[in-house]
Design brief:
Strand content: 15-25%
Number of domains: 1
Distance between the termini: 30 Å
Strand order of the largest sheet: 1-2-3-4-5-6-7-8
Shape: globular
CATH architecture: Alpha-Beta Barrel
Bound molecules: iron/sulfur cluster
Amino acid sequence: MIFGGWQKFSLIDFPGRTSAILFTQGCPFRCPFCHNPELINLSQGMFAPVTEHEVIEFLETRRGKLDGVVITGGEPTLQPDLLDFMARLKTMGFAIKLDTNGSRPGVLAEALRQNLVDYLAMDIKAPWRKYQTHINSTVDAADVRLSAALAMNSGLDYEFRTTVVKEQLTPEDIMEIVRHIAGAKKYILQRFLPTKTLDPAFMEMTTYSDEEFEKICEQIRPLVAECSWR
Ligand code: SF4
């Protein structure tokens, strides 16, 4: 596993559980609004890079004290040894939350088949027809679509989420996304915060107001079990 950084304790990143967060290095998408640009390339570290050995050594001391581990990115499913690593965490007694952009449905399917995931968080970045432009990558939206179907049929607790740059996604675009995942358990709209972006031009972009988000959520709620914004 190649990690770009970690956070040893969080109360808010794994619903209902205390967790440690592991940031994997590398991502096949190039979202211009990405707020973790240091994690995109496989060769760069965002925080003090940490080795798998250090991670395991630390987690050994947290057995029975910490509920779970969040594996996020970058994109975790790029890591060739992800499933072995997850299996190891499970044998150590940790619940696992996996964050993914859905670009590797094969890896996700296998993780689900092996019961390695306790909570799944998946990004749906844009309507399918706009996907490649939106993520600035040739990754096929059909793969993301397949991953979304896997999540919805998994029987797990899961959430879909969309980071909203106002200049990129109209309320109609957001409703189109929601129609792609109609019937989902949970959909979360995330405010875009221009603190750091992959494309410097996106530092000038904005997001919707609280009132606008609430209005959009009201339209969404009949189509999913739960909708919120943060
Ligand atoms: S925001 Fe986009 S580019 Fe950045 S890590 Fe997530 S999927 Fe990759």
